[in-house]
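Person: At home tonight, work slowly through the protein below, taking as long as you need, and write a paragraph about the fold.
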Amino acid sequence: MAEKLRSALNPIHWFLLLKAVVVAGGWYFLSPTIALILLTLVYVIPPYRSGSFALAFLVLFFTIGQTSPTFLFAILMGLAVYTLLGVKNLILINRATAYQVLVILLLFFMWLTFFSTVGGFYSLSMLFSLIAIAVFFYYFTWRSISIRDPNQTLGHRNLLLAVTSFLVLEWGLVVMFLPLPQYSQVALALLVTGFLLEIVLQYISGQLTVKNLLVYFSMFFPLLVAVLVFTPKSI
């Protein structure tokens, strides 16, 4: 992931970075309302391809409006704004990798907002929220594929995306049942959905090999253990 991040952000575009810092700073130091206004302004100016990335913009917009900022969340929000504007305005060179980084950040914010607002209660709103996350996962995965290869046609692979999105929904339900604090729930949800995203993208692009799978699983289980180890034992 660190290698993807370096590849996506290199070279740094300072005016783009300034916009991201302004939005993140407005959220952390001022108020969500000011941050929402700033986010909207930097997104629609220029209006080029604003419709193509509207769902990503809405995820960030909703996150700012519903989530209390911390310093870490502000940094991640700034990174998300940077990559979103860089891909939207065709500024970043490695747009496919940058968009994948953006999708991981969007998944983080979606799970963060979900577990922050649902609060462990099972209801229709919780179910609809999980369905929305699954649908967004489908869409963002499809967009990642189309940015990597505009001539790629999914065909029967639409079923693969649908099944994977359903697994995301089911995993959200499973994590809801676990007696874990919010940050551990977010980490577990993001861990699985992030690996699913990477595996699906590798498979559809024809780059998934047994070696890659072994590498992914060798990374997955230590991270899973780390999340559980750093979870308070009193839960």
